[in-house]
Structures are given as C-alpha cells and as structure tokens.
Amino acid sequence: MRLQSQLNAAFTTLLLIVMAITGYLIYSLILDMLIQDEQRQLRQKGDLLIEVLNEQYGNTSISNLEEFLQDQDLQLFIYDRNQNAVVSPLPKSVVAEFFRTNDFSDKNETLWEYKNDKYVTSRILIRPESTGLELILLTPLSDIESVQQNFIFRLLIVFLIGGAIATILSYIFTRKLVTPLSKLKKQLKKIEKRQFNSMERIHATGEIKEVEQSVFEMANELQRYINSQQTFFQNASHELKTPLMTIQGYAEGIRDKIFDANEEEKGLEVMVTEVKRLKKIINEMVLLAKLDSEPDVYNPEMLQLSVILEQVVDRALPIVNENGVELKHSMEGSPELYADGEKLLRALLNLTFNGIRHANEKVSLHIKQENKRILITVEDDGEGISENLIPQIFHRFVKGKGGETGLGLAIARAIIEQSGGRITVDRSQLGGAKFQIEFFEQHLER
C-alpha cells in the first residue's frame, strides 16, 4: 500500500474512532441532561401552579387542591404524606396503577414506571410543611427520548459532513506531503545511476525540506568524491607510470647491451632512485588508504604538545640545514591533546617539510591554546599557493610548484580530521603559505 493511502486510512480510522467515542459519550450524557432540564421546568411549572392556587383559594387544603385539579388537564399528583393518599386529575385506574407500581414516599426516585412506560418526576413541597402535601408533576420519558434521538440524528449529520470534509482535507494534505517524497525518490534514482547533472531541486517545507537539502548535499559530495577518485586514479597511474617507464627503459637498455659502462652505471643509479621514489609513493598511498578506511590504525592518547613540537624540530633540523633556512618555533602555555602521537607527528612533519621546501629564508611553527581550543600554525616566506590551487591543495596527487608525490598534504589532512581537528590554508604575512590547524574543546581531554 502506498504511503498516501496508508496515511489516509490511518487518519480515517482515527477519525471514526474519535467520532464513535464522542457520539457514544454525547448519547449517554444527553439523556441525563434532558432529564435534569425537564425536572427543572417541571419545578418551575409546579411553583407557578402553587402560586396560582394560593391566589385563587387563599390556602392549600386537600379539598381545595382536589377542586382545583378537577378543572386542570395535567399529568400531576398531589401526595399527602401524612395520609399516604393521592389526588390527581388522571383517571382513578391510572392513579391506582401508579400508586401500586411506584413508591410515592421515596423522594430520591426520579423515574416512575407505568406499564411499559417511564415518566420523569419532579416533587415540589407545598408550604407550610405541616400540611404534608407535595405536588408531583410527570413527563413521559418517551418525549425526552424523542428529543434525544432528534439531537443525535442532527449530530450524526454534522459528523458525516465534518468527516467527509476532514477526509478530503486529509487527502489534500497527505498528497501535499507525499508528492515531494515521490519526487525525491526519483532524484535518488538519479543518484543511484550517477546522473548528477540532471538532478532537480524539490519545493518542500519542514523536515522534508531538510531531507531534500541533505540529499542534494550528499549528491554533491558523492559527485565530488567520484570526481576526486577518478582524478586520483588518473594521477596515480601517471605518477606510477613515469618511474616504471624510466626503470623499464634502462633495464631493457642494459639487457640489450645498448649502453657503455658509464651509461650503464648511470642507468643503474637512476633505476635505484626511481625505485625509491616509487616505493615512497606506494607507501604513502597505502598509508592514506588506511587512514581513510581503517579507524583502528589510530591509537589516541593524551599528548603533551611541547614534546611533539620538540620531535618535529629535531627531525626537521637536517633538512633545515640542507636548505639553509631558519625554523622558528614557539609555544604559548602547555596545551594537551587527545590524539595519536605518531600520526600527529607525521602530519606536522609533512607540513613543516613542505614549508621548508618552499621557504626562501624562514619557516615559523607556533602552537597556542585560546578559548578552549588549540591552534597550530605553520607558515613560510616562500611564493605561497596560487589562488586556483587552494581549493584542491589537500586532494591526492595535487602538487604545487616543487612538490614531490602530491600526497603529503592529503595525509596531513586525513590525520588531523581523524583526530577531531580542522586544517585550512591561506596566505601568510611572511609572504608564503600559512597552514592553520584547529582542535576544539571536546578533543583536548579524555
């Protein structure tokens, strides 16, 4: 069953249940209300009769009441509690039957029986109380039940009309609710077939709009990922193909005795160099794949960043001396971080080595803690990163001028993000590139 049909069926069922319960409660309560209202009217009528009787006769003796009742066409009794006697304009046989089947002395009895009928009663005490007289007025219960049935009939018509309108509105609203979902389903089918360029936005509101927004963000991210994977394989094949072709060319030349002794020695050196370069590329590709797909390669622990900073400086010292640049490092406070020490050291070394390669004279490495976050900044005074390369600089095999494998920054980003941080790149006040790492409060301690 389609979602719209399920929603309509559920709403209609709920509506019928609510209407049935409401109708039952009203049906059971309306009779009591009508009886109470009828008793109130009978009391008013009785008070009026007693007032008229007093004005006409001046007193309310039983003889005067009997004389008065003979001229009235009313369903009432005059009950003498002292004599346990009844006076009524009704036929004597009817009065006798009422007296036989009902207890006139029971003041709490509001419904009397006469054959197969019932009557609503209302008792009015005739003053002074010493007379012991009560005026008892009657109304057939069937008259009240006819009013009840007429009311219920009209209520049923109202329920039917209201139910029909509610069902129509339910169909309209559920259709409005389900239509965007149906359209969203078609867009998901396009994502399944990777037809990203043909996707269309859907007009919706509320939570469906949020889902629609998430779906399109997911589609854009998926498209970006697929494109990056395609670029990765293209770049990887190119990066691996180049050293392999060099090795193959020298190997075939040596095998076929094309080179003389000097050229053969040079070829062997080139082959060894290319093998080392190829090994480095493969190792970094394997590491990057593990960082993306195997969270268990991370072993986080509480780290003193002062120790990590010293390790970075010690390992970078040979390259600093080789390139003739100055590495300035500083730290504010003694910040701690919950992360994998070996992986974090690798990320900072990649950033530092990258700065050293591109620096003219100096590289700066600074760590500080402020407002419950840790900031790590690596910047240099080199040429910097071109504006068109910044959005892709952390992608795999994306290399700036003088880059090596194009995987160092991608590895650094993967490690930092897995450690709960964020890395950005901008232009440094020194003139070159500025890499800034930011760790937030929830990763500062465990």
Automatic annotation (TrEMBL):
GO terms for cellular component: plasma membrane. InterPro entries: HAMP_dom, HATPase_C_sf, HATPase_dom, His_kinase_dom, HisK_dim/P_dom, HisK_dim/P_sf, HssS/ArlS-like, Sig_transdc_His_kin-like_C. Its main location: membrane. It catalyses: ATP + protein L-histidine = ADP + protein N-phospho-L-histidine. Pfam families: HATPase_c, HisKA. Coiled coil: none annotated. The chain crosses the membrane at residues 12-35, 151-173. Residues 235-443 form the Histidine kinase domain. Residues 175-227 form the HAMP domain. SUPFAM superfamilies: ATPase domain of HSP90 chaperone/DNA topoisomerase II/histidine kinase, Homodimeric domain of signal transducing histidine kinase. It comes from the Bacteria. Keywords: ATP-binding, Cell membrane, Kinase, Membrane, Nucleotide-binding, Phosphoprotein, Transferase, Transmembrane, Transmembrane helix, Two-component regulatory system. Its EC number is 2.7.13.3. It is found in: Cell membrane. It is a multi-pass membrane protein. GO terms for molecular function: ATP binding; phosphorelay sensor kinase activity. This is histidine kinase. It comes from Virgibacillus massiliensis. The lineage of its organism: Bacteria, Bacillati, Bacillota, Bacilli, Bacillales.
